[in-house]
Design a protein that fits this description.
Layout lengths: L2 H6 L1 E11 L5 H9 L5 E6 L5 E8 H11 L7 E10 L7 E3 L2
Parallel strand pairs: 2-5
Antiparallel strand pairs: 1-3, 1-4, 2-3
Length: 98
């Protein structure tokens, strides 16, 4: 695959982030950072203390956002980022889910 093809192809990434990622503005920072990219999807806190997110867009943008998740918000302490890539599912807009 050429570099051009990689930037054009849209992908869906389902991401789980663990560590100290709740109560540290992780979701708000995710929403702000996503604006720098051509990404649709959502982010939310889970009851088990993790943050779950879906990013959908050009592969290069999605991969950069997944990489951002490894650090996240300035106050976060990320221990693990798990991601599953798949075909786009038609996400529209980006929002914080409650």
């Amino acid at each position: 695959m050429s570099e051009h093809d990689g930037a054009e192809r849209r992908v869906h990434a389902h991401v789980y982030v663990s560590g100290r990622v709740q109560g540290v503005a992780y979701r708000a920072n995710t929403r702000e950072t996503v604006r720098e990219y051509d990404i649709e999807g959502w982010v939310r806190n889970l009851d088990d203390g993790r943050v779950e997110a879906v990013f959908e867009g050009p592969r290069s943008d999605v991969e950069e956002m997944v990489e951002w998740c490894e650090t996240g918000s300035p106050a976060a302490s990320v221990e693990n980022v798990s991601v599953d890539y798949s075909e786009p599912k038609g996400a529209s807009g980006f929002r914080v889910r409650w």
